[in-house]
Request: fold
Amino acid sequence: MSTPAAADVTERLTRFVAASRWEDVPEKARHEAKRSLVNFFATALGGCTDAAVGHLVTVLSAFSGPPSASVVGRRERMDALSAACVNAAAGNVLDFDDTHIPTVIHPTAPVAPALLALAELRPLSGREVLHAFVLGVDVECRLGNAVSPAHYDRGWHITSTCGVFGAAAAAGKAIGLDAPRLRAALGIASAQSSGLVETLGSMAKSVGVGGAARGGLLAALLAEKGLTGPERPIEGPRAFAAVMGDRPKLSAVTDGLGGRWEILANTYKPYPCGVVLNPVIDACLELRRRQAIDPARIRRAVVRGNPLLAARADRPNVTTGREAQVSAQHSVAASLLWGEAGVAQFSDAAVRDPAVLAARSKVVVEQDPAIPVEAAIVTVERIDGATATVTIDHAKGSLAHPLSDADLEAKFRALVAHGGSGIDPEPLIEALWSLDRMDDASRILRLAAPA
Amino acid sequence: MSTPAAADVTERLTRFVAASRWEDVPEKARHEAKRSLVNFFATALGGCTDAAVGHLVTVLSAFSGPPSASVVGRRERMDALSAACVNAAAGNVLDFDDTHIPTVIHPTAPVAPALLALAELRPLSGREVLHAFVLGVDVECRLGNAVSPAHYDRGWHITSTCGVFGAAAAAGKAIGLDAPRLRAALGIASAQSSGLVETLGSMAKSVGVGGAARGGLLAALLAEKGLTGPERPIEGPRAFAAVMGDRPKLSAVTDGLGGRWEILANTYKPYPCGVVLNPVIDACLELRRRQAIDPARIRRAVVRGNPLLAARADRPNVTTGREAQVSAQHSVAASLLWGEAGVAQFSDAAVRDPAVLAARSKVVVEQDPAIPVEAAIVTVERIDGATATVTIDHAKGSLAHPLSDADLEAKFRALVAHGGSGIDPEPLIEALWSLDRMDDASRILRLAAPA
Reply:
């Protein structure tokens, strides 16, 4: 197969999206799309009462137009653009959403909310939403592939920067744009592509991710009316790849288009923390399952992992839940102590718990370049000299060891309880698994908002 | 004077903005602010009926909240965020707005509309608007200074990327944010900073510029409610300067703060085209003033200029008004033929005029590195062998030869007529010159919208 000329990737990509039929999407990709949506509603219902989301709702409500669109987990209704923004922020705010492995994009947060808001604006079937969603994720992650890893390394929050293109492509497909108008939509998206890694850890991150969903929906609607964009918004000399990429690989945008589906590289976090900590927590929970662990009788716990683990998460002193999400010490202490590693174990209150504080001081992180990034070894040394070790090769939530559908449902229920919206998770879970058979996709939103 | 440490430029900048008093702003800067606003309303009233602006109004109106804010030159009213977006797009769409010489930022389009929309939302005096405007422009252009020229060269549309910070600072000052909240506002702005040079020449440019005004206003309002941003949105390791600059000079953000006012480096275009063409048109209009020129009797017209002129504007074959804006051939032909170089002479219809088409074919562009960028020499050779030459050292509209207040008023009247809004220019011109004595700044908007 010849490498496509870099000069026409926008052309090829938009023709592909415009021509795509539901029948072209393999069953595996369809099912992964449902899993992504189950995970999205889980994290959005868990994050819908977060302070950043609350501030966005308060400020945007004052400027909101006709309340056509639902806000996941909340009583407020807003205009479609504002709802897309708020729901994207909610889905991503806990850092518990999905991860496209090759790029670390969180694909669903910017794309799904644009489509969901649209489904309350115009008649869309569940199948149409799923189809547009798969394509939006494909566009978003293919752009990410083209600029990775230099783009994120430089400081771009890739979920936002690529997300706006994915949302534009998804919304554009859902409203039936032809290839030239899809090109315009991507061009309008390119004018709005933004998001800095510096904002992570602050609420401003949510404005970036929310803006990507809103901006993508807006781009599709403007393109529909005839607003024009540049001919080559991805590959032009002053366009996305050249300006926001360093040494972009443009061929990655179109390589294997229609044959390889990016959504199949999507994964779901079992724990609400940095992915490097997943195997560490797996090991601790396994140790805890094998025997009750009395923290008073532990001398120390040694975590061995790839140097990346130490670089990202050797953080003994933490004072907030947000910091704890990237602390190996806290993750080990909490999971050994409580036998769980959910949002409750990474709350500000949990971080201040005296028992966990004492346990954190006993955790040591050691580096070993021979250990792969997706693995970790945890050894607990008791005061009486006994030791126990667990080695994890592939963490739960990795592509090699994905969360099962049942795991996702359990995560869903736990996050719904955490968010406190009071919605009943069961009908929504059921509806999401059968979304491809739903005539009116907006039913999903009615199940996701309190009565 | 010691160079400020790069590590605290956000701290210093936000303290400066928070502490600034109207009395600190020199009279020259205050007057330049008024000139910038006169020019802004001129270009916005000229651009308010442009197709890109119309599309934005149509789409955003469907999602607009309470119609608290005026749209310059149009009957529609919208929510403040949407109006800020549309008015910024209108001010910039004709490429006839102001230019901050060191950065080529068009400073007013993103900043003023955020403040104007705010003035219809909360009570603001003319003085408060002018003060916040001067500070917003200062923040915007200082960030631009720090990343220029590499930022624009890479492909960033600097008016949008820096404009969102200026709009956030201006709106934040106007609503009385303290330094920590101004820091949050700049952090939220940083999450939204976007805009690609690739979009210039298409309508998508307007979405970038409009988004900067909207995003800045939103940032200030979110910061007011308590939404947080990163500590160092300008100078942090994954923040604006590092990610969007190449070799940024962070000291430029704070050097001479409060002593040197960036608005004094602002200029206003006499002609609706690329600035490199200003001296060329000056020369042609002077030739035309000296003697009536019969195109049939011209053998050729030779333009000599810096190589930059040829690089940007040696464009003999043009078919649209937008292309004509960067064509030396069209600029020479039109100004010699019609003795004018306003928006009418750069319309699609003017470009297709057979007389101007014939005249364009006689224009030759020659390069001479000895000629400065701001200069040009035009020689007209008649069929009978007679020649006439005019040399321009500093074009009209440059810092050395600025438009007079009367020139700005003439531009204002011409653009109001072009836009066709039907508003009376005189009371608005009068009100803008006396803005510092106006108790309720929203009066300006009532004068700028049709009854």
About this structure: The first strand of chain B starts at residue 69 and ends at 70. The two ends of chain B are 54 Å apart (CA to CA). Residues 161 and 193 of chain B are 5 Å apart (CA to CA). Chain B has two domains: 6-268+403-448, 275-392.
